[in-house]
Amino acid sequence: MKNLLKPWQASRRPQPPPPCDDAADRAQHRASVFEDIERGHSGWFWATDAAGCLSYISPAACERFGLAAEDLIGKPFTSLFETDPEHPGERSDRPLQFLLGAHARLADVTVRLVPDRCPPGARPAWWALSGQPKIDVARPGSDGAFHGYRGSARDITLEYERRIEDSRLAEFDSLTGLANRHRISRRFDAMLAAFKGTLRPVTLMMLDLDRFKQVNDTLGHPAGDELLRQVAQRLTRVVGTVGDIGRLGGDEFQILLPDIEDRGKLGELADKIIGLVSQPYRIDDNHVVIGVSIGMAIAPFDGGEREDIVRAADLALYAAKHGGRGQFRFYSADLKDEKEERRQLEEALREAISSVEGDADNWDEPQLAMVYQPVVRTDDHVVVGFEALMRWEHPQRGAIPPSVFIPVAEDTGMILQLGAWALRQAARDAAAWPHPLRIAVNVSAVQFAHPDFPRIVSDVLDSAGLDPERLELELTESVFMGDSETTDAAFKALKALGVRLALDDFGTGYSSLSYLRAAPFDKLKVDRSFVDSCTLSDQNSAKIIAAIIGLADALGMETTVEGVEAFDQRDVVCAKGARFIQGFLYSPPLEQAVLLERMAAGELRIPPEGPKRHRPERRSVYRRIGVIHEDHRYEALLRNLSATGARIEGLVGVPVGTSLVLDLGAGQLAVVTVSRSEDATIGVEFETPLVSDGAGGLVTRYRASSYALAAAARMVSTSAPQFLEVEVRKRA
Predict the structure, then answer these.
(1) What is the pLDDT, as a whole number, of residue 93?
(2) Would you state the pLDDT for residue 515?
(3) What gap in Å lies between CA 638 and CA 624, rounded to an integer?
(4) Is 550 a member of any domain?
(5) Which has the closest alpha carbon to 315: 325, 327, 330, 304?
(6) For residues 480 and 224, what is the distance between their CA atoms, to the nearest angstrom?
């Protein structure tokens, strides 16, 4: 039986396929394998002819691209596919056209369909392209003719996008989306390397936020993070495509500006950045006000390597921060070691505070003093009050302005001692006046934010015996940067004491009307920056002054206009409705002894006295400069300097109308025309006005490189000079 079943069982076993000896069968089998692979979308195949045109592409690829095969076949391969210029293939950083032209082997080169070929709305896809050149070397007598490429591709879109995201995270700040320190440094190096041969300029701006730490401390780190995001958005809005912006970390930013060296334009851009960043922010339910300081250095004038430019910009930034904040500075070779200067200034300020507090016997005389500038009624020139201003006279350094030492006091916390002393001293002095006039005292935002501030004000009033109605506290917008509930509580406590509140510097920056709605101010003070330009026809300052005065009147507030120094300014502000004026036209700040003497004599009326017209400030200087006429260079003395002209001493016989070039140093060459000539003194007018250096000084818009200066020096002639050069000594 078993033997009978064997043939039947053998017939039931799987039989092996018959041998495929036929070449056509093998080709058909291979084609079916390719079709299975293509239908599985795991990859596709392609081929080109010797001319580089596509001769075959898998139907699956056409389906994936959303294109018909006839739209692709016969087209140059490099017109259909491209490598990513930002992120080339892992195995090669050569462009696809180079690889194909060299008949090189392709191994996982990352490509995509050229965007112009993609159907509208198609999702971009990335492929790892591999291929072998088909070269005929097997046939006898063959010369190795090239017949094109045969290759395959696989979809790596998800892998590629993940890699790009990882790369983005490595080069961009995750909080703000700006370039991080690594990327911005690499960009700077690339610019310097590319521009070095042509001496094209690159400007570096270093930015540091003012009062950012206080936001973190009062509102918390999440609020600080949101603030940084909003700052980044504003910077991007101002800079646009002109430059590259990076966040170095914390509250530090960098901006790279290629091909910009005009210090006038750079100053304007810096002012725009300072203005926009200083505009109030809304963080949750809080109103936040910060500022920004900017330092600038320009390659190749301030250095040729990145480290040199960064160091120069950092020095300029340090000077801007500790010169009053909310300012910009250009680097100059005479900038000192600001960090050492800062350390010495801190020590000197501690000594100055000690000289007016504690044991005064340890000091020859107090270094700090309060002086008082009259506020005058315009109708009859009668004094209605005074503003208390602090003065610091250092034994060796001389007078140090508040714009320098107040930021140091705020950063170190010494402002609490300094501000408390100023309140006490001003209240004591005002209590001694024979007339019950008001006294206004400036209050720092740091001082105002201290929870004990209302109690300190109460103690000062009690100790001095001063009527609260006579004390006016001058605040700036920055008091609103802290917690709104704490700010509101401080306002209520101060008003409960009966003191008056004034909003100082109103109209500068981005003053918000919400301040006036929320805070119980009694007065607005118009900033002197509007008064400086109110007589100029091309400015809107006079209209702004009128608008502020009208707003104050509508809200039942007083208005004081600061900084009036000439009769034409007084005429303008009075025409716009000003009833109270403060400025040098009436009086400079006065010491207490002088005030007491005048009050005792009944001198409470101060008639205006000063220039008829306001002139732009002309700085008194004393330094040697070069004066170039034709091919001669003379040495002369620069005396006075303004944006439009200067006075020069040391040249005799220079006719009016003569064109000269002034060498102001550090590559600053200015073309001028002689407008006045008398003895050894000439007056000149600049062909192009000078611009601000951010520190109250003036600089040329452009600078000549050291190479150009050296070449010009070699061209100086040795023929006889046309003018007589005389020695001028400094007057006693």
Answers:
(1) 46
(2) 67
(3) 6
(4) yes
(5) 330
(6) 16
